[in-house]
Amino acid sequence: MIYELIRPLLFRLDAERAHHVTLASLKFSHATGIDRLFAHPAPCRPRHVMGLDFPNPVGLAAGLDKNGAYIDALAALGFGFIEVGTVTPRPQPGNPKPRLFRVPQAQGIINRFGFNNDGVDALIRNVQRARYRGILGINIGKNFDTPIERATEDYLICLRKVYAHASYVTVNISSPNTKNLRQLQDKEALEGLLSALKQEQAQLADTHGRYVPIALKIAPDLVTEQILEIADLLLAHRIDAVIATNTTLSREGVEGLPNAEEAGGLSGAPVRLKSTAVIKQLSLALGKEIPIIGVGGILEGIDAQEKIAAGASLVQVYSGLVYRGPDLVNDVCAALG
Hints:
The protein is of the alpha/beta class and 337 residues long. The chain contains eleven helices and 13 strands.
């Protein structure tokens, strides 16, 4: 209710500035205890996925808190799990501004951030400072100037560094805003990447005495043949989960609207059906062997139910928070029960 009053003011600001203002406000509200006056979490059944016990199935998708600087404030909104990142081995500024655009008529968002972040070491320091002890996913990527042929090295650097601090690690090969990154979804490249990651995961599990699951995040723009190839590789390498999906390059559903022609990945309501279609195909190919985390276009409880019905075990939200605010978490929790 409060967010409905604030949103028109935020929408008068540049989208990226509004993003930072919102996060700073959440952090202030949490630090002062104001957020507890309005917190009324909906009851929701716990889920057991990837060998982890999730207090509820509603998570925050990566991208909102790239550096893990707002974990405690975001956790207070009632999420069952938080995913931070995408983080890269070295700090990088990302693409030039402006790089975040609303498409309010379609409840969509276009971003071309380009993995702007303070680097993996800075993220780890923030995670260590956080009081949150719930399930934390850390999303890893490659630096923009790392040749695609050496991308695996970047992912391994990040995996080694975040392993001790994560409940699970997400491997992001599906952002459209880092040149050539989506080539890693091709069969041969993905085979090599997953093989290296699983080998490193086994060694790290021995070193730390703890098994940390790995999830793979894929794009919504894959054709059926690609989805089936990815499913086969997920099964062959015993990857612990798949997150479907990232943003889309398609502009279906936003044609002719202001900002629709901006370069970048489109998220929010326009990607809902594409994401759900990928989940359905993955579910058929994977059966019950590998869990799916559904993300893309969840703006109300019924959208999350659609993802679960398609085969997802958990869901994540991001763009829906921009249009619905914190109430979305409770709505989705109530819908999933």
